[in-house]
Amino acid sequence: MSQWYSKYLQVYEKPFSEAPPSVVEEVRQNIAGLQSEHPVVTVSLIGYNEEKHLLACLWSLSEMKCKYPVEIIGVDNESKDRTAEIFQACGVPYYTETQHSCGFARLCGLTHARGKYHINIDSDTMYPPKYVEMMVDALERPGVVGVSSLWSYIPDEAHSKFGLMVYEAARDLHLWLQSFKRPELSVRGLVFAYRTEYARTTGIRTDIIRGEDGYLALQLKQFGKIAFVRSRKARAVTGYGTVGADGSLFNSFKVRVVKGLKGIGGIFTKKKEYIDEDSNLIKKK
């Protein structure tokens, strides 16, 4: 059975030189039709050397079905490949962030966002048609200041559909259990949206390698609730990233289970602050 993202795979993991001009033009026209001068929601894409993924991400976004006025902007984290050129070719206004880190890139997107809500997404990920609308629907609920959804991985020769299904089901269960007392631990940047004004008040950390999304969620809790959208209609699809860094899917699962079991008691108590690990701090030059 064909998945909603199947057609985008023809340009995923491919250099921009192999992208059909007709697809680039289609994406350009679709995005031009979406852009609003008075957006309710800003979608900002951060990318560092994402030439092989960015077009697929933009293609998926360009076909969104959304009742809210939208603006789509890009952040190029001073890439060495054709990332910036793809933003240009697709007619996406973009900003160059010369300081390298997810934190700096996300902060750049937040700084330039004009919408009441900000959805800051990753360029190596594809989003279903109702993703933006469903995230904003959740943010429109009283008392909600941030919302996170879930994500799946693209099946390939190294990762079976069944294996991925088991892995994702176990991970989703863990994220669900965590979300009751410590929702900040269940938030991920590739599927996170929030109230722009509150995020600007708290800021986004730029001094850590990873975890800026969870830390932002922790700070946003002072203004209201972090909600979760678990519908498959809002489920993004991405590559393997940190999962792939652990080797096989089984090994990745084992690493995460061991880590999860060590901290199992902590998910039932709220925390107001976290201690930084030295290995996660960005060393100042």
From TrEMBL:
Keyword check for Transferase: yes
Q: Which InterPro entries match?
A: Glyco_trans_2-like, Nucleotide-diphossugar_trans
Q: Which GO terms describe its molecular function?
A: glycosyltransferase activity
Which key words are in the record?
Glycosyltransferase, Transferase
Keyword Glycosyltransferase in record: yes
Q: Which Pfam families match?
A: Glycos_transf_2 (PF00535)
Question: Locate the Glycosyltransferase 2-like domain: which residues?
Answer: 48-158
Alphabetized PANTHER family for the sequence? POLY-BETA-1,6-N-ACETYL-D-GLUCOSAMINE SYNTHASE
What family classification does the UniProt entry report for this protein? Belongs to the glycosyltransferase 2 family.
Q: What is this protein called?
A: Glycosyltransferase family 2 protein
Q: Which organism is it from?
A: Bacteroides faecium
